[in-house]
Amino acid sequence: MFVADGVFYAELNEFFQRELAAEGYSGCEVRVTPARTEIIIRANHTQDILGVKGRRIRELTSLVQKRFNFPDGTVELYAEKVAARGLSAVSQCESLKFKLLQGLAVRRAAYSVVRYVMESGAKGCEVVVSGKLRAARAKAMKFSEGFMLHSGYPAQQFIDSAVRHVEMKQGVLGIKVKIMLDHDPTGRLGPKNPLPDVITIFDNDGKDEVSVDVPSSVSKVAAEPVAPAPDAAAAPTAAAPAEAF
């Protein structure tokens, strides 16, 4: 069952990538209820997905229903606008793909994406373009800025990544975009939980502080123990010598 769900999502995602690339497709979410299956499409241009009087989204619904053998009226498609386009790795990957297809230089296109992502409030960004960029020999170029995690559980929470392939005249180029999101208590623009190594110091307005008027010092050297003086009454007295006449 889990394998079937994964295959369904992978094929659905690939279909939307090819069909809605110009509309800024940024991923989808499948919600299964007892009555019907809801598919939420995230994109930058939701009006183009809906079409004139909802014609385009009805066509997409019909295609999905026939391909996956859904009964009539049991599948619904919705279009949702991406909250922050600059913090979506899929959106920036598609943007970089279209810039390269239009003939823009690789360095200029990659730096424009990195700058836009950092201006949108990301903590870090990394763009990797690999393939036959200029010469006949393939190579990889990496463009990065800011702070980026690469391992551990926080990397799974804070890193949004996407990979795309661009079919150029000289060959296929590979594009990978990684965005390090910032902590957001609301959960809209980033994870709710902060990074585990962040230390927050709270100010208590000086309630626990003691005011010092004059300087003072405390000796840290331990005093040596002093031996007690002998008691005069308890000490034995020597006999006085006899006086000679």
Q: What keyword list fits this structure?
A:
three-stranded mixed β-sheet, 245 residues, 23% strand
Question: Helices, strands, pairings?
Answer:
Elements: H1 2-19, E1 25-32, E2 37-43, H2 46-50, H3 55-67, E3 75-81, H4 89-101, H5 106-119, E4 124-131, E5 139-146, H6 153-158, E6 159-167, E7 172-180
Parallel strand pairs: 2-3
Antiparallel strand pairs: 1-2, 4-5, 4-7, 6-7
Helix pairs in contact: 4-5
Overall, the morphology is: elongated
Radius of gyration: 36 Å
Percent of residues in helices comes to 25-40%
Query: SSE order, as H and E?
Result: HEEHHEHHEEHEE
Question: What's a quick, concise take on this entry?
Answer:
With 245 residues, the chain is of the alpha+beta class.
